[in-house]
Amino acid sequence: MRGLALTLLLLLGCQLLLAQSDRKMPLGRGAELYPYPFANMYYVSPRYDRVVYSDNGFFDTYYIRNVATFNGNAHLRFDVPVVSTNLTDNGSTLWGLGDLNLRYTRVFGNIKEVFYGAHCNMVMPTATNSALGGGKWQMQVGAGAMYFIKESKGTVSFTAEYRFSFAGKQDRADVRQVAISPNVDYWGKNWYAGYYATWVYDFESSVFDLPLDVEVGYNIIPSLIVAAEFKLPLVNDVSYRYEFAVKLRYNILSY
C-alpha cells in the first residue's frame, strides 16, 4: 500500500511536469494561505509529511492539496490525505483515508502593501480508522494580514485563529485550540526561505506548542516549485519529537 501511494505521487509528478502553464508559480508559502498572486489560478501540491514520536512512533500523510484563487480576493483549498501510522493499540501499521480538510480565505482590502482578510477551515471526520483521524467535526476561524516587501523580496504575515470541535463521536477528545502564526520569508531570484511556525495553545491538554518551523523552496521551472520543511518543538510538553515534509507546487491553470 505504501509503495502504491508513492507510485501514484510519482506518476502525478510526471504528469505535472508534462503539463503546460505560462504563469510562474509564486514563491513562498503565502499562496497556500492567501489568494496571492491576486489572479485567477489553480494549482495542485502533492506532498509527504511525517511526524515522529518517541519509541519509533510515526504518523505519515501522503496527500494532494488543491488550491484555487479567483475574483482576485478569494482562495479555496482542499486537502485529500492518505495516512499511515503505527500509533495503534498493538503497534501495527495502519493505512487508510484521513480527515478531509476544506479552507476558504477572503481578502477584504489593503493599505498599501499590507493585505488583510479572514478565513474559515473545516475538518471532516472521514478517517477510515480511529487512529487515522480525530473523529470530530472541527471548525477553525481566523483573521490576519500579510505585508509584501517591496521589489518582491518576501513577506511578513500574522494570523490569529481559534479551532474547535462541534460534533462527532462522543468517545473522541474534544478540540479547543487558539493559535497565532507570526511568519516571515525571503524571496531570492528562484528560491525562498522562511519561518512558518504556528504557535498553538491546547485548552484540553493545557499544552503550549512553540515550534521552530522552517521551509526552503526552489523554482525548478516557472510553474513548478519543490520545497522541504522541518519542524522542531521548542518545549518539552508536546508529544512529538519532530516533523518534516517534502512537497511540490504546480500551477496547472491560469484563467
**Largest beta sheet: strand ordering:** 1-2-3-5-6-7-8-9-10-13-14-15
Note the gap between the termini: 37 Å
Uncertain spans, ≥5 residues at pLDDT below 50?
Answer: 4-11, 14-21
The mean pLDDT is 89
What summary fits the major beta sheet?
Answer: 12 strands, antiparallel, barrel
* Global morphology: globular
What does this structure look like?
7% of the residues lie in helices and 60% in strands. It is built from 1 helix and 15 strands. The model is unreliable at 4-11 and 14-21 (pLDDT under 50). The chain has a 12-stranded antiparallel beta barrel with strand order 1-2-3-5-6-7-8-9-10-13-14-15. The chain has one helix spanning 2-18; strands at 41-53, 58-70, 74-85, 94-97, 100-111, 114-124, 136-149, 154-168, 176-187, 191-195, 199-202, 207-209, 211-221, 224-233, 240-254. A hairpin with a 7-residue loop joins strand 8 and strand 9 (176-187).
Give me some keywords for this one:
mainly beta; twelve-stranded antiparallel beta barrel; 1 helix
